[in-house]
Amino acid sequence: MLDTVVQNMGLLCSRHKRGNQATTEENDQAAEIERRIEQETKAEKHIQKLLLLGAGESGKSTIFKQIKLLFQTGFDERELQSYTSVIHANVYQTIKILHDGAKELGLSEAGSSKYELSVDNKEIGEKLSDIGGRLDYPRLTEELVQDILKVWRDPAIQETYARGNELQVPDCADYFMENLQRLSEANYIPTKEDVLHARVRTTGVVETQFSPVGENKKSGEVYRLYDVGGQRNERRKWIHLFDGVTAVIFCAAISEYDQTLFEDENRNRIMETKELFEWVLKQKCFEKTSFMLFLNKFDIFEKKVSKVPLNVCEWFKDYQPVSTGKQEVEHAYEFVKKKFEELYYQNVTCDHQDRVFKIYRTTALDQKLVKKTFKLVDETLRRRNLFEAGLL
Amino acid sequence: MADSGSDSTAPDKSQALHPVYTTVTNIQNKVRILDGIKVTYSSWVKLFKLHAKGYKVSDHIDGTNPPVETDPTYASWAEIDAIVLQWIYGTLSDDLLARILDTDASAHAAWVKLQEIFLNNKGSRAAALENEFTNLSLAGCSSMDEYCQKLKAISEQLSDVDQPVSESRLVFQLVLGLPFEYDGVATFINQSSPAWDVARNMIQLEQQRQAARQNAPSNQSVLMTSQANATGTPLPTPAASQQQQYAGTPAYPPRSFDHSSQRQNYRGRGRGRNSFRGGRNAGGVWVVSYILHETREEIMWLQVTTRCVLLVVASFLVVAFFSISFSQPLVSDMSLNKKESFNLKTMGEALGIPDSGLLSLDDPTLDVDPNEPLDKLLLNKRFRLSFMEFADSCLAGESVHFYNEVQQLEKIPVNDHVKRIYMVRHIIEKYISTGAPMEVNISHKTRQEIITTLDLAHPYLFRNAVNELLQLMNMNLAKDYWSSIFFLKFKEEAAMRSVDHELEQVNGWTFSPRPSSVHCPDDPFYQDHVPRDPPSHDGHGSYLQ
Predict the structure, then answer these.
(1) Subunit contact B467:A133, Cβ cutoff 8 A
(2) Residue B469: which of B401, B423, B412, B415 has the closest Cα?
(3) Are residues B377 and A219 in contact, defined by beta-carbon separation less than 8 angstroms?
(4) Could B230 and A265 be called an inter-chain contact, meaning their C-beta atoms sit closer than 8 Å?
(5) Residue A52: strand pairing partners
(6) Band (A216; pLDDT cuts 50, 70, 90)
């Protein structure tokens, strides 16, 4: 677009040299430029701006990756390969966190040998922890995998892992440990699944453009999606994206009710999410913005609820479990959902009465679920556009 | 010292010529015109007495009985008395002169008459002055100088009407009338209850400091507001404003010895300590006093005065020195030595770390191989700046800026503790502490480790943080950099610079997912490291000219 403008301007200049009988022509040219600029802005207007917001590790980037897989070209082999080092780094970091965590727990609970590694594994643990603290990790080899597995299976490490909520163990730990053998293969190429699990802290802003094409092959709306970092220091950058947003996709990892922030270990993650959501709702520029709340990481939530009571979190302290099993999970989820719903309506003033608010239960790793969710989001937003245009 | 000189040098009136006759110059230069407003009666009296003492005629005004008319010295006494009377008349405002003028009167009579004029109706005058005194505040005055002078003047007028104001009350009132910006120094003054001059000096220093802070470029202000919004919690602003100071300006204005103000002080010396305009001129006064003291040894009163001044000023300077150096020894040091530090953009430059400024033409170029580890690549300055520009463009620049400044810290020799600590403190305040203007994305543990450290000069203080951030850059930013316009530009430049190097064909550039459209005028990470055009990507490196 800019190129055409420049070209046209070049034409203008050269014509000007020829004489001024070309004035009308010039005017035509100028009008053409005007028209094109207008066209471009119109096209720009058709692009809907979506923001992925949420605290750190709430699954924003996973959603972002899913979009790439679902509505774009996906990952080619080169891109998949580039994730190998990330995945290996995740493994080393996990072991380091667990090893150092076991040491710390052993110190704080003196007298208890629960967190003491067995004699054989101690040395291996030290070695792996040392690698984990380095900058460039070696590629996983069969030998290293054996070492890692030894340490990982050590009762002390398992005991520490059980208290992983107090450490900053990434959610992917379990998954990668289970697949360790595969990861170390010489011709290992990460699978889609592996890439989705890989944990990378996002910094700054990442954007992509996509269009969820429906089954009937009618091209849908064009969306431009922005992914951001979620840690406190990253949030100050969000404000630069807040203008003209169609919808905010707010990710809340509901499984994190017993965890603390990566950037502040004295702060419960759900409490932070609660305040963050409130803050986002109150933003002036979001008066007409739709809100899609993704209650994410339902898979982990499901497993956790039966083990860790929901009321360990201050916000959920009035929760009363009713039964067990699947029913209990549903009950707990409904409770959390209600809490977020209440929070939303508490923070809505009469200015934003006509904005859309939807809550979705998601697991960002689940491709089908994310696809379905985005179809729904797309539908909601299109309906909303028609409504605004007065057609509905 | 006063008594050592008085006996030996006191001239016999009958033999030597009385000093009154020796140097009768324009009296108004020495004793200011008394008008009751600008020059209060009490200060006029002080000046006049000083003058009279210097010319050995104090007995003409203090009521000492004159010699009887038959005395042989009477004639010369009467002559001198007339001269003193002239002095009095010469230093009165016109309307006062009209009330006093009387050719037959002695100097003492005129003195007493004047006293009556000023010290009558004491009660009502005292009440009015008292009221004025308690209600005076800095807000009601045009400047700090005026405020202090007014307070002092009123207190002097109060002592004229026999309602002397104690020094501690004066200091208390001085603090009372200050706005809240001075709360810190006010508390300190109230606790330590210093002398008037010391207190005044402290406040003026604080004022200068605040002025310097306001003048500092406010690069970070946008960030601060957006940050405040973003976290929804109030910020520890002191750290932030400190940061602004560091942005280039020294915390204190250059404390140069200004020659014109020196002269002013010299002339105004007789007016008392009020003319010392803060610590910055105290040094000048000290020098002048010292020279006078050494060169005019024959004049006794001058010796006495200069010695007093020397003492007072020296103690001034000591207090001033401590009040500055407690907080920021090096910054004030820098501002003394280098006026050009005002223009320095980074802490590194301010500390004179080599290689911290702009790119120079002979910086080595680098044939970048994306497969090399990022930490190796970042050691090259050209690459680092290109990477920094990229990171800034996608609002992730703080990590690279942090890395850059830590690299500069590494260049300071390990045994140069002062510089190192300054750089470390700067880095902590800018990148590490919670709510810092360019806070980096590091874990709680690493942050706590740095903040709670007892050894700021520790060589590996930032190692964990740097590692974490290199990981972050490596895993998150690097990939997008290779497919960005910034890397393209970097390659082009490298190719252009090395002549034998063939321009490489650039194939299959995927579009970087990093936004190129997020360019706000208030880019929070806008830094003057590279004088670049407003973010227009015209394909030419604008920072290599």
Answers:
(1) yes
(2) B401
(3) no
(4) no
(5) A227, A249
(6) low
A136 touching B, CB under 8 A? Answer: yes
What distance lies between CA B315 and its chain's CA centroid? 18
What is the CA A328 to chain-centroid distance, rounded? 27
Q: What is the pLDDT of residue B516?
A: 54
| Structure confidence at residue B174 as a pLDDT band (50, 70, 90) | confident
Contact yes or no for B396 and A208 at CB 8 A: no
A113, A115, A121, A126 alpha-carbon torsion, rounded to 10°: -120
Is A123 a known active-site residue?
A: no
**Cα A26 vs. chain centroid, distance in angstroms?**
51
Cα–Cα distance list, B490 to B261, B263, B356, B482, B510 (Å) = 54, 58, 20, 10, 17
The residue ranking higher by pLDDT, B120 or B179, is B179
pLDDT at A250: 94
Nearest Cα to A310, choosing from A268, A359, A263, A266? A268
Are the CB atoms for A222 and A235 separated by under 8 Å?
A: no
Residue A327 CB burial class (10 angstroms; 0-12, 13-18, ≥19): exposed
Helix (H, G, I), strand (E, B) or coil at B352: coil
Q: Does A135 touch chain B (CB under 8 A)?
A: yes
pLDDT of residue B219: 40
Contact, A301 vs A333, CB < 8 A? yes
Q: Which residue of A has its CA nearest to B431?
A: A233
* Token pair recorded at residue A231: 């840690």
Residue B511 pLDDT:
54
B126-168 confidence digits (pLDDT tens): 888 888 888 888 888 888 888 888 888 888 888 877 788 888 8
Whether B158 contacts B202, CB under 8 Å: no
Helix/strand/coil for A317: coil
Distance in angstroms (rounded) separating the CA atoms of residues A277 and A271:
10
| B453 reaches A (C-beta below 8 A) | no
pLDDT at residue A151 tops 80: yes
Residue with tokens 């002062």: B418
Of A201, A208, A240, the CB nearest to B395: A240
Q: Is B391 within 8 Å of chain A by CB? A: yes
* Gap between the Cα atoms of A133 and B183, Å rounded: 47
Q: Answer yes or no: do A236 and B471 touch at CB < 8 A.
A: no
- ipTM confidence: 0.83
- In single-letter form, the type of residue at position B36 comes to G
Q: Which of A82, A204, A278 sits opposite B391 (nearest CB)?
A: A204
pTM for the complete prediction?
A: 0.59
| Active site (annotated) includes residue A72 | no
Assign B240 a pLDDT band (cuts: 50, 70, 90).
very low
Cβ–Cβ gap B444/A241 under 8 Å:
no
Mark whether A57 is an active-site residue.
yes
Chain A residues closer than 8 Å to B227 by CB: 236
**In this predicted structure, what is the pLDDT of residue B306?**
83
Q: Is A109 a catalytic residue?
A: no
d(CA A253, CA B41): 79
> Pairing state of beta strands A222-228 and A47-53?
parallel
Can you read off the two tokens belonging to residue A251?
Answer: 């990710």
Q: Read off the tokens for B103.
A: 């050719």
Q: Is A294's pLDDT higher than 90?
A: yes
User: Can you tell me the mean pLDDT for B435-464?
Assistant: 86
| Cβ-defined contacts of B412-417 (< 8 Å, 24+) | B412/B351, B412/B353, B414/B457, B414/B459, B417/B457
Q: Tell me: the pLDDT tens digits for A219-260?
A: 567 888 999 999 999 998 898 888 888 899 999 999 999 999
Residues 6 or more apart in contact with residue A115 via CB below 8 angstroms? A102, A103, A105, A106, A109, A156, A159, A160
Catalytic residue of the set A208, A231, A367, A380: A231
